[in-house]
Amino acid sequence: MRRAAAVRAGFADCTRAGIVRRGTLRSTATPEIHQTAESILHLIPLPAFADNYIWMLHNDAGQAIVVDPGDAAVVEHALLERQLQLRAILLTHHHHDHIGGVAELLGRHPVPVYAPVDDRIVEATIRVSDGESIELTSPDVRFEVLAIPGHTLSHVAYVGDGLLLCGDTLFSLGCGRLFEGTPAQMLASLDRLSQLPGETLVCAGHEYTEANGRFAHTVEPDNPSLQARLREVAGLRTRQLPTLPSSLADERACNPFLRIDAGPVADWCRRQHGGASDRIARFATLRSAKDVFR
Ligand code: ZN
Ligand code: FE
Q1: Could you tell me the distance, in angstroms and rounded to a whole number, from the CA of residue 101 to the centre of ligand 2?
Q2: pLDDT band at 275 (very low <50, low <70, confident <90, very high)
Q3: How far is the CA of 139 from the centre of ligand 1 (A)?
Q4: pTM, two decimal places
Q5: How much distance in Å is there from the Cα of 79 to the middle of ligand 1?
Q6: Ligand 2: distance of its center to the CA of 189 in Å?
Q7: What's the pLDDT at 273?
Q8: Residue 257, domain member (yes or no)
Q9: 95 C-alpha to center of ligand 2: Å?
Q10: Distance (Å) from CA 56 to ligand 2 centroid
């Protein structure tokens, strides 16, 4: 039986929550919510540290999973507040702000920890690689694993139920820094993510949208979609609300790192010192300019 309308829930700690229904996905006016048939999943970005999000998914039976729990206390608080039981942990990459809370959580919750093949993630119990699927039963979710090197070499994304959990690879209006990978690797990873359906909800690891937006605006000041997104972002941040999840369609329309083939972005790259002979060079130019942008 199909449920009627999506519900939007606000929480005292200023997080936005969304509802995911399984089956036929449709986008809604509020991109943090999507709905499909049958069971319901709630999607919640838990703010942690200065600008991280720990993504939590839970069903109405009180069963939850978290992605990149850098801070155990944040997760414990959310579990307690919502009366949830932790059932699994998913990790996208080895950086401490994404895995730092795992050991402490495991002390209280003996749950599987899905992580990419990387010795630096010692708490992993199930290693995942590109093309594999993860099927969880409670909550009932299924993710495909995508290898997306660039920010780090072993970085993965989890894609399923209309969600893209992409860690520090794709941000709203930006992308992650190249700590380990090459521009070619990162571009290939972003190209992969960019091919997902437009209604896919981008659940990124950081609230960087406003700063990313300032850079994006210098690259494409005349992009009306970007201008609209910047207005939306300013409104959300004024109310201390997350700008995530965003939709992949919005990112394709606004995020310069997904738009290196767009005329204005290519022109901007060509005008920079160093030029931009091909798309990898354009991406490298764009990424290095963002590295020093203030
Ligand atoms: Zn990172
Ligand atoms: Fe991070």
Answers
A1: 13
A2: low
A3: 26
A4: 0.89
A5: 24
A6: 17
A7: 72
A8: no
A9: 6
A10: 16
Mean pLDDT of the chain: 89
**11-44 confidence digits (pLDDT tens):** 323 333 455 654 433 333 333 344 454 578 999 9
The whole-number pLDDT of residue 90 equals 98
- The total number of structural domains that make up the chain: 1
In a domain, 118, yes or no: yes
- Give yes or no for residue 2 having a pLDDT over 90: no
**How many A from CA of 36 to the centre of ligand 1?**
31
Instruction: Quote the ligand 1 centre to 98 CA distance (angstroms).
Output: 7
Among all ligands shown, which has an atom nearest to the Cα of 204? 2
**CA of 171 relative to ligand 1 center, distance in Å:** 11
SS (H, E, C) the chain: CCCCCCCCEECCCCCEEEEEECCCCECCCCCCCCECCCCEEEEEEEEECCCEEEEEEEECCCEEEEECCCCHHHHHHHHHHHCCEEEEEECCCCCHHHHCCHHHHHHHCCCCEEEECCCCCCCCCEEECCCCEEEEECCEEEEEEEECCCCCCCCEEEEECCEEEEECCEECCEECCCCCCCHHHHHHHHHHHHCCCCCCEEEECECCHHHHHHHHHHHCCCCHHHHHHHHHHHHHHHCCCCCCCEEHHHHHHHCHHHCCCCHHHHHHHHHCCCCCCCHHHHHHHHHHHHHHCC
Q: Note down the domain range covering 68.
A: 5-209
CATH of the domain at 74: 3.60.15.10
Query: Does some domain include residue 92?
Result: yes
Could you tell me the distance, in angstroms and rounded to a whole number, from the CA of residue 23 to the centre of ligand 1? 32
Residue 214 within a domain: no
